[in-house]
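Today's session is about reading a structure prediction critically. Students often jump straight to the picture, but the first step is always the sequence itself: look for stretches that repeat, for charged clusters, for runs of hydrophobic residues. Only then move on to the predicted structure, which in these notes is written as discrete structure tokens rather than atom positions. Here is the chain we will use throughout the hour.
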Amino acid sequence: MKINLSDYTWEEAQDLSGLDPVVLLPLGAFEQHGKHLPLKVDEFMVNNIAKEAVRKSNQKKTNAVVTPVIWSGFSPHHMDFPGTISVKDETLTNLIIDIVESLVKNKLERILILNGHGGNIAILKNVGQKLKYDKNIYIATASYWDFAMQEINDWRESDLGGINHACEMETALMLHMQEDIVKKERIIDNPLKRSAYTGVDLLSGGAVGVSASFKELSDHGVIGSPSLATKEKGTGLGLSIVDKIISDHEGSIKFLNHKNGAKIQIIIPYKK
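Below is the predicted structure for this chain, in token form.
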């Protein structure tokens, strides 16, 4: 099977629905990532992760295809930094719903929206609810790091506050995916130091929500410890880590058929 839905003709897309593939819809953002990483980080990484996941799935004879990435997300908190492009929450919500409805109309119903930007998470939860209760359409949503929490915690060197934005994790992934674009000499560390109740780390959210622009927290756009990133850490992260975590536990990821959509079941057998 082809990896990209965009490479199919309409006749091939018509036949594709008969194979009942898993459809990955990558969702990113276009925003500042400090002085050492490019604006494209979120959309670039999630798109690459999605394509690699589809490639591996097809090798295992599990039919899958990836749509074009939604490259801009909800990033008003980064708008103080030049180059950032943000879309309103209602705009992004309607865009995702329109895309999902188009896929379902074409009988491509097993949809996983793979997110690559923290600012999109609340919107995705709302999208899932609206599709279910307004349209009777079921989708699955996940951020790629959700699958890798334990893996990242195992290799991280930074303290709490070191993995947030343009941080150890994102910098490691970019070193793995496109090392030549990372400006290593421009790396600045800025681990977030505030009450753990308000959330200081991507992998450890706080109980209390606090809204703030990035400019209030960082003059240069970094929150975290990117100097601790290495290419070796980045290698294998993303969806390849999903595959590794599941296989290490002799488990599996299954997309269960459901009328007007899909449900995801992650099976990880108990291990002493």
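Discussion point for the tutorial: DSSP finds nine helices and eight strands in the chain.
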